[in-house]
Amino acid sequence: MSYKRQEIPQSEISRQLEICARVRERLAAAGRPMLALVDTYGCQQNESDSEVLRGYLREMGCGFTDDEFQADIIVVNTCAVREHAEMRILGNVGALNHAKKAKPDQIIALCGCMVQQEHMAERVKRSYPIVNLVFGPHELWRFPELLERSMTGKKRVFETRQSDGAVSEGMPRARDGALKGWLSVMYGCNNFCTYCVVPYVRGRERSRRPEDIVREARSLVENGCKDITLLGQNVNSYGRDLGLGVDFADLIRMINDIPGEFLIRFMTSHPKDATEKLFKTMAECKKCARQLHLPVQAGNDRVLRAMNRGYTAAQYIEKAELARRYMPDLVLTTDIIAGFPGETDGEFADTLELVRRVRYDAMFTFIYSPRVGTPAAALPDPMPRQDKQKNFDRLLELSNAISQEKHNEYVGRTLRVLVDGENSDRQYPLTSRTNGGRLVHLRGGRELIGQFTDVKIEKAATWALFGEAAE
């Protein structure tokens, strides 16, 4: 597979910003303030992309609202990972009919992974006439140009060309808050797991240059960010396309060297590319969180081969154990698919056995969802849905039991947390996260929000801990 790395020239980004200024001037001359709504579905990369959408809209002079009846522009950033997400998105888009009737000049745009699929773009074109603009992830950098065409032209705009993707720097961002920040280090994926649509909609792996990443990380810290999550479909592949001799572990060290008190997290880490160097680096870098999301997907070797995962169950277990040897306090999480095409009850039992051995702190579990155009969608799938559900329920029961046991071990301990917000619970009015990413509800004053503090853990539930800020 040949792929030539592409970078969007800064002159093109400057042109997009000029379009933003033109739109802003036109709206100002008309005395017409604009409100925008950006609705985001899916993964953290989509959250990051929505920051760019809001950044461009802010450059156009838009304010923001959560009310679709008040919005002049609605942008729905879509997800394609599972069918359920797509059906939910389409249902919510259909419901925008009422807002469009009340505000006929309203512009509705769909972007992101779902509409990068040809069959879904055609479905939107055919069945959702209220949608004015459709564009895929590869066109994010030129959102102002596409939006201006929608605002000034009479035809609907569809831009979902197939592409390997490119790297764009210098786009404006409007972040949700100063305390936590998403930081994309690379885009796309080269792995082609047989169940996954991401390589088809996000393109090939493209790494951002380390100096650009470190510059953005430093800016985040200087602006008060204390929890930075590095994003990529497979962060362990970082740098391979650059030829600079800088890999992901090196990048973590570079960010760790930035002055300030903050945490470095990352996702997602592919097991086949997770190295001892990475674990050693995590252990040695004080600002790197002791948290590792290492998706296993299945615990049976035949199923793993059918998924094209590139490792065996034994190899995965060896890496998990190696990571814990370097970091005994590591919080380890994973993804698992129940009901992959052709998977038998006996093979699924191997997955349950792997879970018992690894003992994850938390798991994200799913029933297999066929994705159009992926190899797995063409495989024989004889197991009835109700049997897949039974296996899924067994997995969930095991996962919850282990999570509860692990959380019980925190009771009585004092942990360092970052207090990140308020909670509706009057007894524990604040929310926070441990170094390992565990949610902690705590008692304490609002002045703690945005600060690192120690908390004495009083009790535990399956998904959260509860405690009081230490004196």
Could you please describe the fold and organization of this structure?
By secondary structure, the protein is α/β, with parallel strands linked by helices. Helix 1 packs parallel to helix 7 and helix 14 packs parallel to helix 15. The protein starts with 9 loop residues before the first helix and ends with a strand. The relative contact order is 0.08. Strand 10, helix 10 and strand 11 form a beta-alpha-beta unit. 37% of the residues lie in helices and 20% in strands. The protein has three domains: 150 residues, Rossmann fold (3-Layer(aba) Sandwich), CATH 3.40.50.12160; 229 residues, tm_1862 like domain (pyruvate-formate lyase- activating enzyme); 56 residues, Nucleic acid-binding proteins (OB fold (Dihydrolipoamide Acetyltransferase, E2P), Beta Barrel), CATH 2.40.50.140. The longest helix has 24 residues. The chain is globular.
CATH class of the largest domain: Alpha Beta
* Count of individual beta strands: 19
Query: What structural category arises from helix and sheet content?
Result: alpha/beta
What is the residue-mean pLDDT, rounded to a whole number? 95
Based on CA inertia axes, which overall geometry fits?
globular
Give the strand order of the largest sheet, numbering strands 1, 2, ... along the chain.
2-1-3-4-5-6
CATH topology of the largest domain: pyruvate-formate lyase- activating enzyme
Distance between the termini: 59 Å
Percent range for helical residues? 25-40%
pLDDT < 50 stretches: none
Tell me the count of domains: 3
Rg over alpha carbons: 23 Å
Strand residues, percent: 15-25%
